[in-house]
UniProtKB/TrEMBL annotation:
Organism of this sequence: Thiorhodovibrio frisius
Annotated protein name in UniProt: adenosine deaminase
Family matches, as SUPFAM superfamilies: Metallo-dependent hydrolases (SSF51556)
Phylogenetic classification of the source organism: Bacteria, Pseudomonadati, Pseudomonadota, Gammaproteobacteria, Chromatiales
Family note: Belongs to the metallo-dependent hydrolases superfamily. Adenosine and AMP deaminases family.
Keywords per UniProt: Hydrolase, Metal-binding, Zinc
Length: 707
């Protein structure tokens, strides 16, 4: 709690007794005690653990400090150096600057708590500046105390009597003070949150109270920001006049009008000659990825790197398993000779067919050593492995519309085939982190099915523990987990993952923070969303966020079932949503997000890529969704299998849109990703704020060729 202070120090106990009745119940005998308690409950007032006070230099604070010591409450008191009367404009501005500094600091240290501001102490100008500070920097409540008249013939309590304010006030004194909440939560002023955000480190106060030189840098900066807000209003009016369906990063509206116009006019994905320049621009942007499967993150080099962490175990298995040794000897010889046809023949595939990599798992009774040994044969030859897996599909123009049945085998060397031991899981996580840093990912939701990684002897809980331990200390990217139930597997396996999520949420606070949602994936033809309703009921009862793969290659009814039967908050792919305009409208109104994955959508379903001049004439629905106000996000799906990364996905989205996407639209897609994150509201807000600050710093400090 922060309060200004005038001649009466007792205003602080009067306010403290309102916020902390368990510690000091001054109003126990108040005639309106029940109403006071009801007001606390109405505004969610909770006890404070520190009191900060701003006053003038001449005010005595010894009794206030004595009172605070008696009730064992920390208190810090500041005053502007040399300011005692507030008799001049300069003195009042110095006081305003100090109040702003203290409130700014208070807001920062209470990000995960509560900040209450008092309007009751000191001169009216001090109260006015305290209220202004709350409106500028945000607070959780503005408090006041009304001082009633005592009945005639009764003297007021003496300010000398500190003890009188350390216990419940007797009648009639209890009734003369009436604490009030004059205003509930105040959000911070947007003009002060855009880049560069105002930070207390730039406008410090002594950490434990004291005198502060009467300078005005924060006061002047606030005035400058508020004047600059005229540009914000202007650009917001432009937004309304142009009928934008969604608002973009708030800081963008603070840019000069010509800069905003350029962002709205400049397009990427419209000219193949500019592909590298476009990708370079995208690479600088902070991003999120909400739809990324752990089982599809590795490219050829990554597969080899992960497998190599188990080299010792592979050698041990070869020593006791002659069949494994024989098979791996053949693979090594063929790889050394770069004999692709021989490798395909060994794996039962003709030229231009994807080999049956699943048979490698049969070479050894223990997993994943056969797959690891196979991949290690390509050490120093990742291009050969890449050719073996993808063959003609290495040409993006040919890697389109192949269908889910041909797409899934491209991942048969990773996921549950490879990640069956602690070493491979940790190595894969290390590669996820490395890629996130490279791609400027600031938030990643990684989805997986832990029970699928237990064939090598790990338990599902051990798998989760390894993932959390390997990912949770990443500082550049906030990485969270989703679990997946697969349509094409037995219902009992889906229930296993649902029960795993329930058990771990009940047992671990760390898991509750890192686990953010549940997904239904797999071939949509195998099981519809409505068939999963009973199984998903415990998730819905626990209010766990739900994402459902729906409308990827099946009719829009699957999306309807996902939203109305399973209460999905996000839809994976959602490519057929436009077939039901009323459902699309409802998704917009309910802010249901769509996780679009341009590369895999192009590769599996087939849409027109206007840069490659490849694919059928079918138009990708992303631009129409965006225009309708749908919260569209762009994601990687399986970056290793789809041969992509977050920047390439944004570019692919533009390339699959007639005329490309504007820079403004790309930034809208990025903002949507942070807004649709399944983490809690406070984390989501902080992520969005940091992403905006990073974006605005780059836009304002880096000279762009086009903007």
């Amino acid at each position: 709690m922060i309060s200004t202070l005038g001649t009466s120090w007792s205003i602080v106990p009067e306010l403290f007794a309102f916020t902390n009745p368990q510690q000091l119940d001054l109003y126990a005998h108040h005639e309106s005690c029940a109403q006071i308690a009801a007001q606390r409950a109405e505004y969610g007032i909770v006890g404070v653990n520190r009191i900060w006070v701003v006053t003038t230099e001449k005010m005595r604070t010894d009794r206030l400090r004595e009172w605070a010591a008696r009730i064992e409450m920390p208190i810090d008191i500041w005053h502007p150096l040399g300011v005692d009367e507030l008799a001049s404009v300069r003195e009042n501005r110095a006081m305003a600057d100090l109040i702003y500094r203290v409130v700014l600091r208070g807001r920062e240290v209470t990000r995960n708590g509560r900040l209450y501001l008092s309007l009751a102490g000191g001169r009216k100008t001090m109260s006015a500046e305290m209220q202004q500070a709350g409106m500028l920097f945000g607070c959780d409540a503005l408090l006041h105390v009304v001082d009633r008249q005592l009945p005639s013939g009764i003297e007021r309590l003496s300010d000398q009597d500190v003890g009188a304010f350390c216990a419940p006030l007797p009648k009639p004194y209890a009734d003369i003070y009436q604490p009030l909440v004059t205003l509930g939560r105040c959000p911070p002023n947007a003009a002060l949150e855009v880049h560069p955000s105002i930070r207390s480190a730039d406008f410090p106060v002594p950490p434990a109270g004291g005198a502060v030189p009467p300078e005005l840098p924060l006061y002047e900066e606030v005035r400058r920001r508020l004047r600059q807000a005229d540009s914000l209003i202007y650009n917001f009016s432009c937004q309304v006049s142009q009928a934008e369906a969604q608002s973009n990063f708030h800081g963008l509206y603070m840019l000069p009008p010509d800069r905003v116009k350029a962002l709205r006019a400049t397009r990427l994905g419209a000219d193949s000659a500019r592909t590298q320049a476009d990708l370079g621009w995208l690479a600088q942007l902070p991003k999120s990825d909400l739809h990324c499967h752990l089982g599809g993150v590795l490219d050829a080099a990554g597969l080899i790197e992960v497998a190599t962490t188990s080299a010792a175990q592979v050698r041990e298995r070869e020593a006791v398993n002659p069949e494994l040794a024989r098979q791996l000897k053949q693979v090594r010889a063929l790889a050394a000779a770069e004999d692709l046809d021989g490798l395909r023949a060994l794996l039962g595939a003709a030229t231009a067919q994807t080999p049956d990599f699943r048979q490698i798992r049969q070479w050894d009774t223990q997993e994943p050593w056969g797959v690891c040994g196979f991949l290690m044969a390509f050490t120093d030859r990742p291009a050969l492995l890449d050719a073996l897996v993808f063959d003609a599909l290495r040409d993006p123009a040919r890697y389109q519309g192949i269908g889910i049945a041909a797409y899934e085998p491209l991942g048969d060397l990773q996921g549950s085939a490879l990640l069956q031991c602690e070493a491979s899981l940790r190595a894969a996580c290390a590669m996820v982190r490395r890629a996130a840093r490279r791609d400027r990912l600031r938030y990643l939701e990684l989805r997986c099915s832990p029970h699928n990684y237990t064939r090598g002897g790990l338990s599902a809980q051990q798998v989760v523990d390894i993932l959390l331990d390997s990912l949770s200390d990443e500082t550049d990217c906030d990485i969270r987990l989703l679990f997946i139930a697969s349509r094409h597997r037995r219902m009992s396996e889906a229930i296993q993952h649902i029960e795993l999520a329930q058990d771990l949420r009940a047992a671990s606070a760390d898991f509750r923070r890192r686990f953010v949602g549940f997904d239904l994936a797999g071939n949509e033809q195998q099981r519809s969303p409505v068939e999963m309703r009973d199984a998903f009921r415990p998730l819905l009862k626990a209010c766990i966020p739900i994402s459902i793969h729906a409308g990827e290659d099946q009719p829009v009814n699957n999306i309807w079932e996902a939203t109305y039967e399973l209460s999905a908050e996000r839809i994976g792919h959602g490519l057929t949503l436009h077939d039901n305009p009323e459902l699309l409208r409802r998704c917009v109104e309910r802010r249901i997000a769509v996780e679009m994955c341009p590369s895999s959508n192009y590769q599996i379903v087939g849409f027109r890529d206007f840069v490659l001049q490849a694919g059928p004439d079918t138009q990708y629905p992303l631009a129409d969704y965006l225009s309708a106000g749908l919260r569209v996000t762009v994601n990687t799906d399986n970056p290793g299998i789809s041969r992509t990364d977050p920047s390439q996905e944004l570019y692919k989205a533009a390339a699959m849109t007639p005329g490309g996407l504007t820079y403004w639209e790309v930034l809208q897609l990025i903002r949507n990703g942070f807004q649709a994150a399944f983490c809690n509201r406070q984390d989501r807000r902080e992520l969005l704020g940091r992403a905006e600050a990073e974006l605005m710093e780059w836009l304002t400090e880096t000279a762009s060729r086009d903007v």
